[in-house]
Amino acid sequence: MKNVRTHLSSPWASFAAIILALFWTIPTLGLFVTSFRPSKGINTSGWWTVFTNPEFTLTNYSRVLFEGRGATPPLSQYFLNTFAIVIPSTIIPITIAIFAAYAIAWFDFKGRNILFFTIFALQVIPLQMSLIPLLQLFSGGLHIGTIPIIPSFGITGTFIPIWLAHTMFGLPLAIFLLHNFIAQLPRELIEAARVDGADHFKVFRQIVLPLSIPAIASFAIFQFLWTWNDLLVALTFGGGKREIAPLMVRLAEMTGTRGGDWELLTAGAFVSIIVPVAVFFALQRYFVRGLLAGSVKG
Amino acid sequence: MIEIAARQSQLEQAVSKLTGLGLTIAIFALLVFLAFSLAERTSEKIQRYLKYLIFLIPAIAFLFIGLVAPAFRTIYLSFRDARGDSFIGWENYYWAFTQPEILDVLKNTGIWMLVAPIASTGFGLTIAVLTDRMRRPGLVKSLIFMPMAISFVGAGIIWKFVYQFQPNEKSPEIGLLSQITEWLGFVPSNWLLETPLNTLLLIVVFVWIQTGFAMVVLSAAIKAIPDEILEASMLDGASGWKRFSRVTVPMIRGTVIVVLSTITIGALKVFDIIRTMTGGNFKTSVIANEMYNQSFRALNYGTGSALAVILFFGVLPLVIYNVWHLKREQSERL
Question: Min CA distance, B175 vs chain A (Å)?
Fold first, then answer.
């Protein structure tokens, strides 16, 4: 009995698993197929009829991506907004988090452990607890009585509040995951460098950062998917401005107001899905690693 | 002519957005670079303090301004009126636990917390066990896992189309669920309007996404069961079901509980699915959606904050459990 697991493999288990996988895929397939059908066909016959009666078009995509409607820009603009939100909202928290993770793991100071557990616990404070105060801070600054402590900077209506909010909400998980990784780097490696006269800045730059690339990649995928797919933060901190609204805000709005235009909704939804799914399949290994580090060990 | 002008201005907007993006990243990189290269030039004595300022203080400042201070302020606001001007005691909480609409919201949140984690973990465990007995599970796992990359908004649209109902009796159904119902000889209905069925249909969307998460984590736990234990159970002649219930499940119990609690936290905070699929109408609203409505539609910061605090206390026991679990694992490792 060399390989007990292969021995246990059974055709019935495979069959059941494949059926479930098909069942899981059909809804997405329906959306995908529908997005390529002419609008008349979509509303008069089910998408499953294309297998006997195929008829396809790219019009839905060109319409939804490039044709605006009155004051509403086409989806390509929202697509750009999503990029403009996602990239800084991924880079900034990772940078700040990896600094903090290094400090908590390798600086000697009192209360290190308490700080680490506090940050871990912050992870699960619901976003909702921060929305109103942060929105007030971003739009009005901070006052005690009438004395301004932090000015408002006039950032409302720009991408900046969305970046800052994503950074704040992403930090606890980022610090937690990166700390777990950095704390396990071999002690000799870091101490040897310290003895040779390298300061913390040098050790971080030359040893810790290059070794941490896999952990950074794991978290980067999380943060990327989370900010790309986010609706609540963009809705709250975007202030309903079309110029900075990302894809998700527009799509949610479209389902409300144009719920029957399936040719536009399906094409739009597919545009919003394709990037994260591509990233996900390309980097699945890192994603799974991060997931396991975050939940099984956590 | 107008169309060309519109295209032109779109292009201009795109260029200006991309420039802004590039500039932001460049400025941020420059700041980090400057901080480091200046810090490395200072003496050891200064560095002893400077290292905290550069490595630790930014994170602590962000966490304090973004999470800790707002949490306290939200608690404070929950005892004040709509504009936060005057103290009104427990009135907002009294409102939340007596208003019939809000009681419906709390009831729905309860259903979500109960059904969603059990269903997701159940499906995830089933698939993890099945794929563990497959020779090449890669594709099956990827297909089940894929919805995790899809947004709740995207998933909402996918499933809204599945639930689509054709009110005109003469036209054929275009939603898959309605068509299957018809094929089975029943009469389809306007699914998302039927309370309490609609809440369950929304939960299906969430389960469809979270099953992948449960599967991956549980699958890793099953793989970690030592081969000797499985061999021993086989030699003892344990059947498939017995092996599952007496060996596999007890061995991965800790992981199952963590998966359940993680998904429960997610179910408590669900917002996007409700917003996209029903907008919280037809008695499908949940606490996170109602919190948004109260705060940013009705502009009542008092009731909105009270709902956020209620949500927080719903999550709290799960957080305490997770922290306790982490501490225990860390002490086991030492």
Answer: 7
pLDDT bracket for residue A276 (50, 70, 90): very high
Query: What is the pTM assigned to this prediction?
Result: 0.93
Q: In this model, does residue A176 exceed pLDDT 80?
A: yes
Q: Do A205 and B36 form a contact (C-beta atoms < 8 A)?
A: yes
Complex ipTM > 0.85: yes
Using pLDDT thresholds of 50, 70 and 90, give the confidence band for residue A247. very high
What DSSP designation does B98 have? H
B156 to chain A nearest CA, in Å?
9
For residue A49, which of A65, A30, A72, A68 has the smallest C-alpha distance? Answer: A30
Phi/psi of residue B190, each to 5°? Answer: -80, 85
Tokens 């509403």 sit at which residue?
Answer: A72
Q: For A141, which residue in chain B has the nearest alpha carbon?
A: B65
CA A48, A53, A54, A58 torsion-angle sign? negative
Angle (deg, nearest 10), helices B152-162 and B176-183: 30
Q: Which of A44, A120, A125 sits opposite B71 (nearest CB)?
A: A125
A148 by DSSP, 3-state: which?
A: strand
Rounded to a whole number of angstroms, the distance from the CA of A7 to the nearest CA of chain B is 9
Is the Cβ pair B174, A46 closer than 8 Å?
A: yes
Sequence-distant (6+) residues with CB within 8 A of A231 are A248, A249, A252, B151, B152, B153, B271, B272, B275, B276
pLDDT at A1: 42
Predicted confidence band of residue B198 (pLDDT cuts 50, 70, 90)? very high
Q: B158 to chain A nearest CA, in Å?
A: 6
Q: Please list, in sequence order, all residues whose beta carbon lies within 8 angstroms of the beta carbon of residue A107, skipping any fewer than 6 positions away.
A: A200, B51, B52, B55, B56
Q: Which of residues 61-80 of B touch A (CB under 8 A)?
A: 62-63, 65-71, 73-74, 77
B20-33 pLDDT tens trace: 999 999 999 999 99
- Lowest mean pLDDT of A93-107, A180-194, B94-108, B274-288, name the range: A180-194
Chain B positions touching A137 (Cβ under 8 A) are: 65, 70
The reply to whether A165 touches chain B by the CB within 8 Å rule is: yes
pLDDT, tens digit, for every residue of B167-181?
A: 887 788 899 999 999
CB atoms within 10 A of CB A184: 10
Partners of B149 on chain A (C-beta within 8 Å) are 225, 273, 276-277, 279-281
Window 96-155 of B: residues touching A by CB (8 A cutoff) are: 123, 126-127, 129-135, 137, 139-140, 142-154
CA distance B276 to A230: 12
User: Is the CB of residue A202 less than 8 Å away from at least one CB of chain B?
Assistant: yes
Judge whether A283 and A222 are in contact, CB under 8 Å: no
Tell me the count of A-B CB pairs closer than 8 A: 359
* Secondary-structure percent of chain A, ordered helix, strand, coil, rounded to 5: 70, 5, 25
